[in-house]
Amino acid sequence: MTESYTLRVNGVVRDVRDAWVGESLLYVLRERLGLPSVKSGCEQGECGSCSVLVSGALVCSCLVLAASVSEQEIVTPEGLQSDERGALTTVQRAFVDEGAVQCGFCTPGLVMAVHELLARDDAPDDLAIREAISGNLCRCTGYGRVFAAIRRAVADRDADSGVDT
Amino acid sequence: MTVLVPTSLGDALASLADDPASVALAGGTDFMVQVNEGLRRPERIVALGEIGELRTVRREGDELRLGAGLTYTDLMGDDVAVVVPALAQAARTVGSPQIRNAGTLGGNLATASPAGDTLPVLRALGASVEIASAQAARTEPIGAFLTGPKTTSLRAGELIVAVRVPVRRGPQEYLKVGVRNAMVIAVASVALVLDLDRQTVGVGLGSVGPTVLDAPEASAWLADRLRWKRDRAVVDDPRVAGEFASRVARAARPIDDHRGRADYRRHAVEVMARRALRRCAS
Amino acid sequence: MSVVTRRSPGRVGESVTRPDAVPKVRGEFAFAGDLWADRMLWGQTLRSPHPSARIRGIEVAAALAIPGVAAVLTGADLPGRNRYGLEHRDQPVFADDVVRYAGEPIAVVAADHPETARRACAAIVVAYDVLEPLTDPAVAAEAAPLHPDGNVFRELIIRRGDLSARGPIVVEGTYEIGMQDQAFMGPEAGLAIPADDGGVDLIVSTQWLHNDREQVAECLGLPEEMVRITLGGVGGAFGAREDVSLHIHSCLLALHTGRPVKMVYSRRESFLGHVHRHPARIWMRHSADADGTLVSFETRIVLDGGAYRSSSYHVTANAACFAAGPYRVPNALVEAFGVRTNNPPCGAMRGFGAVQVAFAHEAQMDRVAEACGVDPVELRLHNALAPGDELLTGQRITGTLPVADVIRACAAVPLPPPRVDDVLARPGGAGRTSDDVDVHRGVGFAVGFKNLMYAEGYDDFSTARCSLTDGVATVTCAAAEVGQGFVTLVQQFARTILGVDDVVVAPADTSIGSAGSTSASRQTMMSGGAVEQACRAVRVQLLARVAHEHLESPVELDIVDGRVRSRDGTIDLPVVDLFPGETFEATEEFHHRATTPLDADGQGDAHVSFACAAHRAVVDVDPELGLVRVVHLATAQDVGKVLNPVQVVGQVEGGIAQGVGLAVMEELVLERGVVRNPSFTDYLIPTALDAPDVDMTLIEEPEPGAPFGAKGVGEPPTISSTPAVVAAIRSVTGRPLDRVPVRPHDITGL
Fold first, then answer.
1. In the predicted structure, residue C737 carries a pLDDT above the cut 60
2. A165, pLDDT greater than 50
3. Residues C248-261, buried b or exposed e (16+ Cβ, 10 A)?
4. Is B132 left (phi over 0), alpha (psi -120 to 50) or beta?
5. HEC profile for C698-729?
6. Does C679 touch chain B (CB under 8 A)?
7. How far is C378 from chain A (nearest CA, A)?
8. Which of B49, B73, B182 is facing A134, going by the closest CB pair?
9. A62/B32 Cβ within 8 A
């Protein structure tokens, strides 16, 4: 039982041909569309490593039926660019500088969650930060440097007058 | 096509009527877990995510009509939180931000897990479920709609369209016990609703029975002993709280499982009932 | 706390950005599960649902008939031995006649789509005679053997001093530690590619490439040179990747089908497919003088090793050697057993036996303090080990071990402020279970230590090559980077020693000699030592060349700020400009000093080096509901030398989170040998809302024989964090809490 449909990913319309109907958005993004930044950590929506934006909302792509979202705008970590040269976003830069990356498996999904947080709250307090990333499990860092990175991203965005995220 | 994405309720119902074995897919937070594990192999899916009319909030008289497509994040918004604060509280306890953005009110009802977080609140409020098929529509009180663990009265070809929640003026609370401070399935939960106009008490209990339970005896007992005023309810006798809580606990029918022990669940219900009352009444 | 990083190339001691941070943050870093090859097939494993069974027959015809299936293989298809194991080959690659644990591999499938592979596995018919499993480790030693090697992996006795000595204060207790899982985020993954020479290339997430290669080669009946292993990106390890998982399976499928085969475990399979931390039951009895001076220590430790040996032999030794904690104990009897059951196999997890005994010995120390009427921190200071003291094994501490310093520094960290009035700051979080009046704050203290490096006479080593051309240094080392930041240290070492900025870290593979395992907090010393040695050898070659060119004596030359300088200043040349086109290269092996085995009384100089840490936990507890929020962890840790501050901070914070998890939420629940919760839904690890704030002091007393005096930092944070949290909960509730993880009903006392 196969499906063919299109998906709008990172601003580009992509063809999906002869895909098994039950494939998750996670599978299609990784295995059919060549976007491996979306990580498969649990396929149950419990770890957040597969987080993407679907029409601006942060969701676990493992729980999205790919064939059902052809009308939605999908953004993956590959789609987060601050400019055409592909410079790191303020959030990505902060993660690098604050030592918030160890094994890095949770990192792309976490960066998506932080982008989404800062898009709706430009001055989150400590508990708001924790709640916003409570769906992204990290086993390496204990979250300490991640919190530091988010605080720095908030401060740096203020300094840059919040242009890019 | 085996995945249909209708944009109107009418189209969705027509698609379901064409093949009642179709899967109606809302947020996917239960369904896709099973697909990913190989436990379900869908052949025809009617995806509901593009149906705007399922995602509305409307005040209709003394009821708030909540579209089945509202996500938990939607339920945390002011248009619900101000009118039904316990429902917004419950929505905030579900999963993670990612799950809250995808999972829906209708999905919580259709999956009918005894641990479903909106269910104790809806039970305590005395909500009813609006159901439609291509042929007919019906409305059913939630207690009758939820028939057992993960079972409902939904028939083939039927969709949950909305939930009708009586607007009750008064304090209300939802408390939920989990081992971790985020992303937990309820070990036990309690909803308490005081209606200052009708001078009634509603209770809903989660994860302590085959489905969500109410506590009619405890509710009526408390309603008789509250001193109902215009803007609050008062507990005059300090023993009432403890007695109410133990009556609520008696209404629970918990089991032992890998998430919790029955005796702990019953105890937790008692503690939560007492604290909920402490918050709702002076 | 804030640690500022440097973006520009940095040297030892600076918070240098890791070289893979940018690709990781972009999502461009290739984990093993991201690899792809032309004509690739997907592999899948069929595993036993039964913990104990006899296999009567396996029928694969129905599976083979499914379109898209390229191979269905069992033990009968292995060209070599059907046995593997970390050091002792006791474990079947595929169960042959008998199954010994639920999750044991029976067969593998290769197909053109992962869903097809799953369906093919489901179509394999296995006839089992289900047997009664042995699941109680307490009776395992006397029970009928589950395996030709018997049911005891190790029995280790340590006798020290006068076994009849007793002080007037006697405290005894029995403690239980549940099964913790490493729960790394990146599931097992690998890609096996058949080679033209009849061999195979495997790219895999792992901890020890060369040990894997030995086992793959033996089981495939190939010479080692025909098995080439390259490290794929690793999504965390914490001990769970030290054993072979999909390595032999994927290579076998690749050789059989002639096509690349990729295997990626689901989360459920990951929980079943790797070893776990040994559950333990520990009885201890301390005696002391009235002033708190420890007189005697007795313990009986039983570790449940599950169905196969893995590293149980060494975990048992670690538990025994460090059973009393970092304290002077003149008289001791330790009996430690690692036993086989039909429970899931256990092996290495960060802390490796010291975690289990620390929970017990720290609970005991608090009880001794109370019985003596001494402050618990003072009691620990009073008995603290110091260099020059002897361990239970009679070994005299000749390196550094600042136990008293870590205790004092940890106790001196300011307490956190009172909690804010927000539901998320209270136990229960968004569940709104408590108001401020229901919550009480408690404080607990604990200290722990363990060895670094391997032990008991094992001649551990690591290999590294340094190559310098045109001012660019390339360092090759097979040390597995699993997230801990070893690759950053490589660059820092090379920059510091050679005075260049550009350092290329070559891929880790089996083309160079072994670097040993990323475990035992050993890579900083062993592979860091090899890298340092290789870079220094290149430095010597370079300076010798400069000296020769300039008719200068090499002893007059030094490298300072990227320039070769002579003492009298006549030579001052930038390193990057020296000898264009010429390569200076050295390959070095680093060995640590010799250790000895333990004798019949458990005595011997068995360990290389030690590290200690102290933890103070502040918890908010709702005693009526038994819910906990771990608010703050203060820690002081013995690190030798801080090579990279931000990386050390990250390792300490991460280890503490794992310790918190064991204290209050993490346990693989077994029911008759079957794991009931092999998923993140019900195996709970700390989220961002569960993580405590951490304040740390790093104590630097350089360790002799270690590169730059640095000690590995990964394990100490996991050892005394758990008992500190539980001690804090005890201080609020008054409950004995002799089991971890502490569950709500343990606190409420139902």
1. yes
2. no
3. bbbbbbbbbbebbb
4. beta
5. EECCCCCCCHHHCCCCCCHHHHCHHHHHHHHH
6. no
7. 30
8. B182
9. yes
Neighboring chain C residues of A98 at a CB cutoff of 8 Å = 3, 5, 646
Structure tokens at C554: 């090499």
Q: Which of C109, C118, C432, C729 to mutate to test the interface with B (most CBs of B within 10 A)?
A: C432
pTM for this predicted structure: 0.97
Phi, psi of C674 (to 5 degrees): -105, 135
* Peptide bond just before C716 cis, omega within 30 deg: no
Chain C interface, best mutation among A105, A126, A127, A130, by max C CB count within 10 A = A105
Read off the DSSP letter of residue C52: S
Q: Which among C119, C433, C435 is the nearest to B177, CB-wise?
A: C433
| Backbone φ and ψ of B158, nearest 5° | -95, 150
Section A149-160 average pLDDT? 90
**Are β-strands A2-9 and C331-339 bridged in parallel, bridged antiparallel, or unpaired?**
unpaired
Element of type H or E holding B219: helix B216-225
Write out chain B residues lying below 8 Å of A135, CB-based.
95-99, 182-183
pLDDT tens-digit profile of C435-468? 999 999 999 999 999 999 999 999 999 999 999 9
Strand partners, C54: C98, C129
Q: Are C299 and C316 in contact (CB under 8 A)?
A: no
Confirm if A36 and C30 have CB atoms less than 8 A apart: yes
Residue B240: count of CB within 10 angstroms of its CB: 16
Name residues of chain B where pLDDT drops below 50: none
Length of chain C: 750
Number of residue pairs across A and B with CB atoms under 8 Å? 101
Q: Which of B29, B47, B73 lies closest to A68 in CB terms?
A: B47
The SS3 assignment for C739 reads strand
Domain extents in chain C: 396-452+608-750, 461-591
CA-CA distance, B101 to B96, in Å (whole number)? 9
Contact B259 C669 (CB under 8 A): no
Every domain of chain B and the residues it spans: 3-166, 172-280
Helices (H), C221-260: 247-257
**Which residue ranges form the domains of chain A, and what is each CATH number?**
2-77 (3.10.20.30), 90-159 (1.10.150.120)
Q: Which of B177, B259, B278 sits opposite C431 (nearest CB)?
A: B177
What's the CATH superfamily of B172-280?
CO dehydrogenase flavoprotein, C-terminal domain (3.30.390.50)
pLDDT tens-place string over residues B85-123: 999 999 999 999 999 999 999 999 999 999 999 999 999
What mean pLDDT value characterizes chain C?
Answer: 96
Which tokens hold the place of C213? Answer: 């290669």
Nearest by CB to residue A22, choosing from B35, B73, B102, is: B35
Q: What is the mean pLDDT of residues C693-702?
A: 98
- Put simply, whether A24 touches B (Cβ < 8 Å) is yes
Could you please state the CATH topology (level 3) that the domain comprising C396-452+608-750 is classified under: Aldehyde Oxidoreductase; domain 4 (3.30.365)
Choose among C317, C348, C214: nearest CA to C595: C317
Do the Cβ atoms of B101 and A46 come within 8 Å? Answer: no
Put simply, whether A49 touches B (Cβ < 8 Å) is no
In three-state secondary structure terms, C423 is helix
Q: For residue C670, give how far its alpha carbon lies from the nearest alpha carbon of chain B (Å).
A: 9
| B28 neighbourhood in chain A, CB within 8 Å | 63-65, 68
Per CATH, is C461-591 categorized as 3.10.20.90?
no
Interface ipTM: 0.97
Query: Does pLDDT of C125 surpass 70?
Result: yes
Contact B45 A24 (CB under 8 A): no
What is the fold of B3-166? 3.30.465
Nearest-CA distance A85 → chain B (Å) = 30
